[in-house]
Amino acid sequence: MKSGRRLTRRAADALAILAVCVVTAYTINDAGMDGRGITATGSRARVGVTAGAAWQHHPPGQRVWLAGLGWRTIEDTGGAARRWGPGRLDVLFGSTGSALAWGRRAVACDVLHGGHRRGAF
After folding, report:
1. How open is the CA angle 50-5-92, to the nearest 5 degrees?
2. Which end of the chain is more exposed for a tag (fewer CB within 10 A), N or C?
3. pTM of this structure
4. How far apart are the first and last CA of the chain?
């Protein structure tokens, strides 16, 4: 995938599901974000884009497809994320209500690395 290009829904749907990820939700008002919305990479957190992970397993910039949410980009990490293993992600939601409604879920996921599918976690 070239920078700036988006995969179509059809292309995303055609990907084989390689793993199940445990996905939790957070907002910019959660502890550690202090309402400013600046990620660990220094970029502004964006609903529908930003995800956090343990960078030793999912480096910044890696694209992850999550069933029910679509594509997210690893842009954030946190104190707890450093202890996470592969396949554990934190996704930014726009409101506390929507984050609480999502909670923690196990969802089908796939990973792109350098524009190519990386394979199983």
Report:
1. 10
2. N
3. 0.74
4. 20
Distance (Å, whole) CA 87 – CA 78: 15
29-39 pLDDT, tens digit each: 877 666 678 88
Q: What are the distances in angstroms from CA 65 to CA 32, 56, 69?
A: 25, 18, 8
20: which 2 tokens?
């199940």
Two tokens, residue 118: 């990386």
Tens of pLDDT, residue by residue over 81-116, are 667 777 889 999 999 999 999 999 999 888 875 544
- Report the alpha-carbon distance of residue 54 to residue 7 in Å, rounded: 25
Give the pair of three-digit tokens for residue 51.
Answer: 């995800």
Token pair listed for 62? 């890696």
Q: Scanning the structure block, which residue is given the tokens 């179509």?
A: 8
Placement of tokens 């990620």 in the chain: 39
